[in-house]
Each structure stands twice: as C-alpha cells, then as structure tokens.
Design brief:
About 45% of the residues lie in helices and about 10% in strands. The C terminus is likely disordered. It folds into 2 domains: about 170 residues, Collagenase (Catalytic Domain) (3-Layer(aba) Sandwich); about 40 residues, no CATH class. The protein is an alpha/beta fold. The strands form 2 sheets. Strands 2-1-3-7-6 form a 5-stranded mixed sheet, sandwiched between helices. A two-stranded antiparallel sheet has the order 4-5. α1 crosses α3. The longest helix is centred in the last third of the chain and has 36 residues. The radius of gyration is 30 Å and the shape is elongated.
Length: about 240
C-alpha cells in the first residue's frame, strides 16, 4: 500500500506539492508517490468518484491498493458547506483545498487522512488536536504525530488496519532497498580491493627483479607502462618499432 498525492490543475506548483507531501508523510513515517499530471478540474463529487475508480485499478509494487489525496485550489463542498477537505474512508480517497501556506494545506491533509485511518466521521473536542473540526494554523515542521494529535486520536490512527498496512509496506519497501544497496556496496568493495591489490602475472620461466611492480598512475600512456613492465621482468626496454 502507498499514499499518492495528485493535483487538480497545473496551477499548483509541483515543488510546493512535494513539500506538503514530505511534511504529511514524515508525520506518519510512510512512503508516497507524487503524480504531477493534472487530474482535471471537476466538481468534487465527480472527482472523488473518479479517484475511487482510479484507486480500484491502480496497484502499487506489492499489488495493494493505494490511498489517493487530491489537491485543488477550489473550496471543497461537504453537505452544503464549504470546507477545507473531504474524505471517503471506504474508498480511501480525499480531496483537500490547496492553500499558499504549505503548513495549512498539510494540516488539512493530515486531518482528512485521520478520517481514513480509523476516525471515520469523527472529530475531536481538543483544540490542540488536528482532528479538531476547525482549521489549525500551528506550524507542523519537525513535529511528530504524538505532538499533533491528542493521545486518543493518535492511538486510534496508529492502530487502524489501513494505517498499519501503509506503514508496514513502507518499512518493507525500505528494507528491500537497503538490502539491495548493501549487496551493491559489498560487490563494489570486493571489486575495489582487487583493483587496489593487483596480482601481476609472471611469464613462465622468467624471474622478475626485486624492484616494485610498475604503478600505472606513474606513466603517461599504456606504451610507457608496458616498457616498464618488460624492464621489471628483466626483458630490457623494447624498441619503439616493436609490435604488440
């Protein structure tokens, strides 16, 4: 399972969108995909329906459904009121109003994801919790989920099966990447050792002198290096007319 962020139109800057995605996923410690191709400027009822249909077809690298969050500059309508976001927990999709302040957009996004992560149709009475029904203007950078949600809401979020699946999938994906990097690092180290410590082949029947085997870095080209190797084996300096 993976969290995917989309934008309704190209008017939303992709770099700003990435900043919001980084803030949100850092709080939950999960991976994400950023889909910058404009989704389309639809009525939000239609947009959520299309997202649900797309989510049913879109599978991540573990063949598991993703969660879609759509950013839109237009205000979101819910039950006749204009709100900052709207989520459909069963479909695992949400639409969030895009605002110029990245922290405000991230706050609304975290709030809507809370509805997907076990807090369906539920809000919190604590004004310090992101699940409070009204907008938060507090800075989010560097804060953890425990600091942004009240204890009860955070416990509900982190014990939700969808959240656990998303979190565990992220950990497994990172573990695979780490194992792959370790294999590459091991192979590279072994190859580097062989390069740093060459074992020169001694022609049969020839005893080399006591001098150190020539270092390629000390010669301008392969020909002068070859002459030095011949001298090392006591074969004398080759003439320039010698063919190799």
């Amino acid at each position: 399972m993976k969290l995917c962020f989309l934008r309704a139109t190209g008017a939303i800057d992709a770099d700003d969108m990435k900043l919001v995605a980084e803030t949100v996923t850092t709080v939950h410690d999960v991976d994400y995909d950023l889909i910058t191709e404009p989704f389309g400027d639809y009525n939000h009822d239609i947009a959520l329906q299309r997202l649900a249909e797309l989510r049913a077809r879109y599978l991540d690298d573990q063949d598991s459904p993703v969660i879609f969050v759509l950013f839109d500059e237009n205000a979101v309508e819910s039950h006749g009121a204009m709100v900052l976001g709207r989520a459909i927990a069963q479909s695992r999709v949400a639409v969030v109003k895009w605002r110029s302040e990245s922290d405000r957009t991230a706050s609304a996004c975290l709030h809507e994801l809370g509805h997907i992560f076990g807090l369906t149709n539920r809000h919190c009475d604590s004004e310090k919790c992101l699940m409070y029904p009204y907008a938060h203007d507090n800075p989010l950078q560097g804060k953890t989920g425990r600091e942004l949600f009240c204890e009860e809401c955070w416990r509900t979020v982190t014990s939700d099966t969808i959240y656990e699946s998303l979190h565990n999938a992220s950990l497994e994906r990172r573990s695979k990447v780490t194992r792959g990097l370790n294999r590459i690092r091991t192979a590279f180290t072994a190859t580097s050792e062989k390069i740093r410590k060459p074992k020169p082949l001694i022609p049969k029947g020839i005893v080399h002198t006591s001098r150190t085997f020539p270092d390629t870095n000390q010669y301008q080209d392969e020909y002068t290096f070859l002459y030095a190797v011949l001298e090392y084996y006591g074969l004398g300096q080759a003439s320039e007319e010698t063919e190799y």
